[in-house]
Amino acid sequence: MSFKEFRKELKGGIRVEAELIKTVFYSLLTSFLVLGVLYLLRFRFIEGFMSNYGYFLFFAALGYGFIIPAVRQIRAYKEFPCMSGMMIGMTTGMIAGFLPGFLVASTNGMFVGSMFGVTLGMAFGIWNGKCCGVMGIMEGMMAGFMGGLMGAMTAFMLFNDHLIASMVVVSTISAVILFTLNYMIYKEMKLEERTNKEDYFWTFVITFLLITLTTWIMVLGPRSGVFG
Amino acid sequence: MKNTTIFFVVLAMILTIGGFVFLSGKDRVTSNSVPNAGQFINGEIQKVVLSKEGFNYKDATAQAGRPIALSADKSVVGCLRSVVVNAEGKRYSKYLQTPEDILELPALSKGTYTFSCTMGMGYGKLNVK
Fold this sequence. Notes:
The structure holds 2 protein chains of 2 kinds. Chain A is mainly α. Helices cover about 80% and strands about 0% of the residues of chain A. In chain B, strands 4-10-9-6-7 form a 5-stranded mixed beta sheet, with no helix packed on it. A 3-stranded mixed beta sheet of chain B has the order 1-5-8, with no helix packed on it. A two-stranded antiparallel ribbon of chain B has the order 2-3.
């Protein structure tokens, strides 16, 4: 029953859930614009760019497009009960650690990938987990720490075995998990009022920063010896 | 614009850009690749082919004083294809995606050098005589 209501909200309600699809759109638009401009100005002159970086940057843009709407939804309510907050910290920390870790490790090696994944995962985990206090923060930290390392390690172990196909599967699963998180937040908070109303400025800013940083690390960042 | 319309715009955007990225991928690879550098002088090079024994590398043998082109045959799978050799204070590493890929090592002095996969899961010995 509440899933039908959630779907109705997604299509065009009055709550924050009605802004999720728009947030995905603006996040993807920002990422693709940044990548498009960089491709036209510089990246198309790099030999084998699409094979070596193109896939991974595309999936990074998609990944951020899934994570940012969840952040917006969490920020809209600010405070959650402990159990929900822990789930929020764990989910955002894990996905925000696993996906970037996986993608960056695919181009730069395990050390750089895991450090990037752990940093991003823990930052997102703490930021979103703090909606329920120290338990959410701890859960976010732990999930970000583990997700970052696991993502990088998985990519590293899949080098010789359908890395691109695995990336499609990993991204799809992450999208489903985050969509389920959106639904869970709606279900937990549907009787509560929204406490923070904001425009899309932070969606653009956060996406821009994330995609720029990821691109910079992938293309110009340090690389492990494995990449020759 | 309605959210349903935006949803389809997002879908179209992902499919279009995704299609462009996947069709533009030069080799349409399923995994990462590292090009061969090939900087050896002909005649001096000695080829050493690694193979797998159990969960580790089979011990390999090479001659002292000659540079080594290290490759891995088809029996070597998974992370074992990504080899790291620590020799005389330096670290040499490369992902040997195919049996044709080589890791170039300098001329080594006599001794036994241990090497592993980059994840430290499998080990082997290079006996230089």
